Amino acid sequence: MIRLVVANQRGGVGKTTAAVNYAWYLAARGRRTLLIDTDSQGSIGVMLNLKPKHYFSHFLVNKFHLDECTVQAGENFHVLCGNKETVQAESALAGAVVRELTLKVLLEPYEKQYDAVIIDVSPSINLLQTCAMVYARNVLIPVNMDLLSLNGANAAYDMIRLLNDLIRANITAVGLMPCQVDQRLSVTALVQQGLEKMSEMFQIPILPAIRTDQSVNKAFRARRPLLEYDPASKAAQDYLAAFEKITAAIEANAQIQKASA
Q: Rounded to two decimals, what is the model's pTM?
Protein backbone atom coordinates (compact mmCIF):
# COMPACT_ATOMS: atom_id res chain seq x y z
CA MET A 1 0.00 0.00 0.00
CA ILE A 2 1.19 3.52 -0.78
CA ARG A 3 1.18 5.96 2.14
CA LEU A 4 2.63 9.43 1.71
CA VAL A 5 2.72 12.75 3.58
CA VAL A 6 3.47 15.96 1.65
CA ALA A 7 5.20 18.38 4.01
CA ASN A 8 7.22 21.57 4.20
CA GLN A 9 7.21 24.02 7.12
CA ARG A 10 6.93 26.90 4.65
CA GLY A 11 3.60 27.72 3.02
CA GLY A 12 3.09 28.37 -0.67
CA VAL A 13 5.62 25.82 -1.90
CA GLY A 14 3.23 23.67 -3.93
CA LYS A 15 2.36 21.07 -1.30
CA THR A 16 -1.35 20.95 -1.99
CA THR A 17 -0.87 20.97 -5.77
CA ALA A 18 1.56 18.06 -5.46
CA ALA A 19 -0.75 16.13 -3.12
CA VAL A 20 -3.83 16.59 -5.31
CA ASN A 21 -2.06 15.67 -8.52
CA TYR A 22 -0.27 12.67 -7.04
CA ALA A 23 -3.57 11.36 -5.70
CA TRP A 24 -5.18 11.89 -9.11
CA TYR A 25 -2.18 10.22 -10.79
CA LEU A 26 -2.58 7.10 -8.65
CA ALA A 27 -6.38 7.00 -9.07
CA ALA A 28 -6.05 7.32 -12.85
CA ARG A 29 -3.87 4.22 -12.80
CA GLY A 30 -6.53 2.15 -11.09
CA ARG A 31 -5.39 2.57 -7.49
CA ARG A 32 -8.18 3.32 -5.04
CA THR A 33 -6.87 6.50 -3.50
CA LEU A 34 -7.79 8.51 -0.40
CA LEU A 35 -6.53 12.09 -0.15
CA ILE A 36 -6.65 13.63 3.34
CA ASP A 37 -6.42 17.35 4.12
CA THR A 38 -5.30 17.94 7.72
CA ASP A 39 -4.84 21.68 7.17
CA SER A 40 -7.45 23.95 8.77
CA GLN A 41 -7.41 26.16 5.65
CA GLY A 42 -9.17 23.40 3.73
CA SER A 43 -7.23 24.13 0.54
CA ILE A 44 -7.95 20.80 -1.13
CA GLY A 45 -11.70 21.29 -0.89
CA VAL A 46 -11.29 24.76 -2.40
CA MET A 47 -8.96 23.55 -5.14
CA LEU A 48 -11.36 20.79 -6.23
CA ASN A 49 -14.60 22.67 -5.45
CA LEU A 50 -15.78 19.98 -3.01
CA LYS A 51 -18.63 20.49 -0.56
CA PRO A 52 -18.68 17.58 1.92
CA LYS A 53 -21.30 17.14 4.60
CA HIS A 54 -18.68 16.11 7.14
CA TYR A 55 -15.00 16.86 7.50
CA PHE A 56 -11.72 15.52 8.84
CA SER A 57 -12.60 16.83 12.31
CA HIS A 58 -15.78 14.69 12.38
CA PHE A 59 -13.74 11.60 11.55
CA LEU A 60 -10.98 12.45 14.02
CA VAL A 61 -12.94 13.62 17.07
CA ASN A 62 -16.53 12.50 16.62
CA LYS A 63 -15.44 9.10 15.26
CA PHE A 64 -17.77 9.26 12.25
CA HIS A 65 -17.37 6.39 9.81
CA LEU A 66 -14.85 7.31 7.13
CA ASP A 67 -17.39 6.81 4.36
CA GLU A 68 -19.61 9.48 5.93
CA CYS A 69 -16.82 12.05 5.72
CA THR A 70 -15.28 11.47 2.29
CA VAL A 71 -16.44 12.82 -1.04
CA GLN A 72 -15.71 11.35 -4.46
CA ALA A 73 -13.56 13.62 -6.62
CA GLY A 74 -13.20 11.17 -9.51
CA GLU A 75 -13.00 7.48 -10.32
CA ASN A 76 -11.01 5.70 -7.59
CA PHE A 77 -10.46 9.11 -5.97
CA HIS A 78 -11.93 10.00 -2.56
CA VAL A 79 -11.13 13.09 -0.47
CA LEU A 80 -11.40 13.72 3.27
CA CYS A 81 -11.53 17.52 3.47
CA GLY A 82 -10.24 19.78 6.20
CA ASN A 83 -11.83 22.97 7.52
CA LYS A 84 -11.38 25.50 10.31
CA GLU A 85 -12.64 22.99 12.89
CA THR A 86 -9.43 21.01 12.39
CA VAL A 87 -7.72 23.35 14.87
CA GLN A 88 -10.16 22.37 17.63
CA ALA A 89 -9.81 18.72 16.62
CA GLU A 90 -6.07 18.87 17.12
CA SER A 91 -6.51 20.45 20.54
CA ALA A 92 -8.79 17.57 21.52
CA LEU A 93 -5.96 15.14 20.79
CA ALA A 94 -3.43 16.89 23.00
CA GLY A 95 -4.19 14.79 26.09
CA ALA A 96 -4.62 11.47 24.31
CA VAL A 97 -2.51 8.47 25.29
CA VAL A 98 0.13 7.67 22.64
CA ARG A 99 -1.35 10.51 20.60
CA GLU A 100 1.23 10.12 17.81
CA LEU A 101 -0.52 6.89 16.80
CA THR A 102 -3.97 8.47 16.49
CA LEU A 103 -4.17 8.43 12.68
CA LYS A 104 -2.66 4.97 12.50
CA VAL A 105 -5.35 3.62 14.83
CA LEU A 106 -8.19 5.43 13.03
CA LEU A 107 -7.16 4.72 9.43
CA GLU A 108 -5.90 1.14 9.50
CA PRO A 109 -9.41 -0.40 9.80
CA TYR A 110 -10.30 1.23 6.46
CA GLU A 111 -7.15 0.34 4.53
CA LYS A 112 -8.79 -2.57 2.72
CA GLN A 113 -10.90 0.03 0.89
CA TYR A 114 -7.84 1.77 -0.56
CA ASP A 115 -4.57 1.15 -2.32
CA ALA A 116 -3.09 4.55 -1.43
CA VAL A 117 -3.47 7.21 1.26
CA ILE A 118 -1.99 10.67 0.58
CA ILE A 119 -1.95 13.27 3.37
CA ASP A 120 -1.47 17.01 2.95
CA VAL A 121 -0.41 18.72 6.19
CA SER A 122 -0.27 22.35 7.29
CA PRO A 123 2.96 24.36 6.89
CA SER A 124 3.76 24.25 10.60
CA ILE A 125 5.02 21.77 13.14
CA ASN A 126 1.97 20.41 14.93
CA LEU A 127 0.49 17.23 16.34
CA LEU A 128 -1.44 16.29 13.21
CA GLN A 129 1.72 16.49 11.12
CA THR A 130 3.43 14.19 13.60
CA CYS A 131 0.51 11.74 13.46
CA ALA A 132 0.53 11.81 9.66
CA MET A 133 4.26 11.11 9.43
CA VAL A 134 4.09 8.27 11.95
CA TYR A 135 1.21 6.70 10.01
CA ALA A 136 2.55 7.12 6.47
CA ARG A 137 6.30 6.69 7.12
CA ASN A 138 7.02 8.23 3.69
CA VAL A 139 7.40 12.00 3.29
CA LEU A 140 7.64 14.07 0.12
CA ILE A 141 9.18 17.54 0.59
CA PRO A 142 8.30 20.05 -2.15
CA VAL A 143 10.63 23.07 -2.28
CA ASN A 144 9.80 26.32 -4.00
CA MET A 145 12.62 28.39 -5.47
CA ASP A 146 13.14 30.71 -2.50
CA LEU A 147 15.46 30.43 0.47
CA LEU A 148 12.66 30.38 3.06
CA SER A 149 11.21 27.34 1.34
CA LEU A 150 14.61 25.66 1.64
CA ASN A 151 14.61 26.45 5.37
CA GLY A 152 11.14 24.93 5.61
CA ALA A 153 12.40 21.77 3.92
CA ASN A 154 15.21 21.50 6.46
CA ALA A 155 12.70 21.96 9.29
CA ALA A 156 10.50 19.19 7.86
CA TYR A 157 13.46 16.83 7.74
CA ASP A 158 14.44 17.80 11.29
CA MET A 159 10.97 16.62 12.37
CA ILE A 160 11.51 13.30 10.57
CA ARG A 161 14.85 12.78 12.32
CA LEU A 162 13.37 13.73 15.70
CA LEU A 163 10.53 11.21 15.38
CA ASN A 164 12.92 8.51 14.23
CA ASP A 165 15.23 9.19 17.17
CA LEU A 166 12.54 9.50 19.85
CA ILE A 167 10.04 6.81 18.92
CA ARG A 168 11.83 4.83 16.17
CA ALA A 169 9.11 5.76 13.71
CA ASN A 170 11.10 4.54 10.68
CA ILE A 171 10.08 7.54 8.55
CA THR A 172 11.79 8.12 5.19
CA ALA A 173 12.03 11.27 3.09
CA VAL A 174 11.35 9.86 -0.37
CA GLY A 175 12.45 12.98 -2.21
CA LEU A 176 13.01 16.72 -2.46
CA MET A 177 10.84 18.07 -5.26
CA PRO A 178 11.88 21.47 -6.69
CA CYS A 179 8.75 23.42 -7.69
CA GLN A 180 8.08 26.53 -9.82
CA VAL A 181 11.57 26.29 -11.27
CA ASP A 182 12.65 29.12 -13.60
CA GLN A 183 16.31 28.80 -14.58
CA ARG A 184 16.39 32.46 -15.65
CA LEU A 185 16.21 33.61 -12.02
CA SER A 186 19.42 33.88 -10.01
CA VAL A 187 17.75 32.62 -6.82
CA THR A 188 17.02 29.32 -8.57
CA ALA A 189 20.73 28.46 -8.69
CA LEU A 190 21.12 29.31 -4.98
CA VAL A 191 18.21 27.09 -3.96
CA GLN A 192 19.38 24.26 -6.20
CA GLN A 193 22.81 24.41 -4.56
CA GLY A 194 21.11 24.24 -1.16
CA LEU A 195 19.06 21.25 -2.26
CA GLU A 196 22.18 19.46 -3.49
CA LYS A 197 23.87 19.99 -0.12
CA MET A 198 20.77 18.80 1.74
CA SER A 199 20.47 15.78 -0.55
CA GLU A 200 24.12 14.83 -0.03
CA MET A 201 24.04 15.38 3.73
CA PHE A 202 20.84 13.45 4.44
CA GLN A 203 20.83 11.03 1.49
CA ILE A 204 17.51 12.30 0.10
CA PRO A 205 17.08 12.06 -3.70
CA ILE A 206 16.26 15.20 -5.65
CA LEU A 207 13.27 14.54 -7.88
CA PRO A 208 12.68 15.93 -11.38
CA ALA A 209 12.02 19.67 -11.17
CA ILE A 210 8.56 21.13 -11.77
CA ARG A 211 8.92 24.06 -14.14
CA THR A 212 6.89 27.25 -13.92
CA ASP A 213 3.77 26.93 -16.04
CA GLN A 214 0.64 29.04 -16.33
CA SER A 215 -1.37 25.84 -16.75
CA VAL A 216 -1.04 25.27 -12.99
CA ASN A 217 -2.98 28.48 -12.26
CA LYS A 218 -5.48 27.75 -15.02
CA ALA A 219 -6.15 24.30 -13.58
CA PHE A 220 -6.72 25.86 -10.16
CA ARG A 221 -9.22 28.34 -11.58
CA ALA A 222 -10.96 25.44 -13.34
CA ARG A 223 -11.03 23.54 -10.00
CA ARG A 224 -9.38 20.49 -11.54
CA PRO A 225 -6.09 18.63 -11.03
CA LEU A 226 -3.46 19.79 -13.50
CA LEU A 227 -2.90 16.25 -14.79
CA GLU A 228 -6.57 16.10 -15.75
CA TYR A 229 -6.89 19.69 -16.99
CA ASP A 230 -3.81 19.85 -19.21
CA PRO A 231 -1.82 16.60 -19.23
CA ALA A 232 0.34 17.83 -22.13
CA SER A 233 1.59 20.92 -20.27
CA LYS A 234 5.25 21.05 -19.30
CA ALA A 235 4.46 21.10 -15.56
CA ALA A 236 2.18 18.07 -15.94
CA GLN A 237 4.94 16.18 -17.71
CA ASP A 238 7.35 17.16 -14.94
CA TYR A 239 4.93 15.91 -12.28
CA LEU A 240 4.55 12.61 -14.10
CA ALA A 241 8.31 12.08 -14.11
CA ALA A 242 8.52 12.93 -10.39
CA PHE A 243 5.52 10.77 -9.47
CA GLU A 244 7.01 7.71 -11.15
CA LYS A 245 10.12 8.05 -8.99
CA ILE A 246 8.09 8.70 -5.83
CA THR A 247 5.98 5.59 -6.39
CA ALA A 248 9.05 3.45 -7.05
CA ALA A 249 10.72 4.76 -3.87
CA ILE A 250 7.67 4.07 -1.70
CA GLU A 251 7.26 0.56 -3.06
CA ALA A 252 10.97 -0.14 -2.53
CA ASN A 253 10.68 1.10 1.07
CA ALA A 254 7.69 -1.20 1.62
CA GLN A 255 9.71 -4.19 0.45
CA ILE A 256 12.57 -3.30 2.79
CA GLN A 257 10.21 -2.85 5.75
CA LYS A 258 8.46 -6.14 4.96
CA ALA A 259 11.76 -7.99 4.78
CA SER A 260 12.94 -6.56 8.10
CA ALA A 261 9.63 -7.23 9.92
A: 0.96
